[in-house]
Amino acid sequence: METVRLVTVDALPQPGTPVFAEYGGATINVYTTELSEHAAVALATREIAEAGWQLQAVDETYLLTRADLEEATPEGVAYFEQALLDGVVVVIHTYPATPQDGDLVH
After folding, report:
1. Where on the tree of life does the source sit, at the highest rank (predicted)?
2. What does the radius of gyration of the chain's CA atoms come to, in whole angstroms?
3. Whole-prediction pTM value?
4. What is the tens place of the pLDDT at every residue in 47-101?
5. 51 three-class SS
6. Rounded to 5 degrees, what are φ and ψ at 69?
């Protein structure tokens, strides 16, 4: 059975990068064929930095199979398949630098 590791992190844009002025932060999912948690987090940290982000916290990391994603999130299957081909896929879910109308700020 084919397996990938998903590493989910909170990240902030690196100062001086194009994303710095535009985004306040991001939740980033890194799908990788590195099955070791330590190796997967190290790879995720490098990939995120190359994309102009700095890791703030690792939210979670776990192993996934295709069947896990088919049940939970169909778009995740495409990321899973691409990770099997390329070894890593980085999916960045950004949020704006300033609160938007209707956002709750605490």
Report:
1. Bacteria
2. 15
3. 0.89
4. 999 999 999 999 999 999 999 988 778 889 999 999 999 999 999 999 987 766 6
5. coil
6. -75, -35
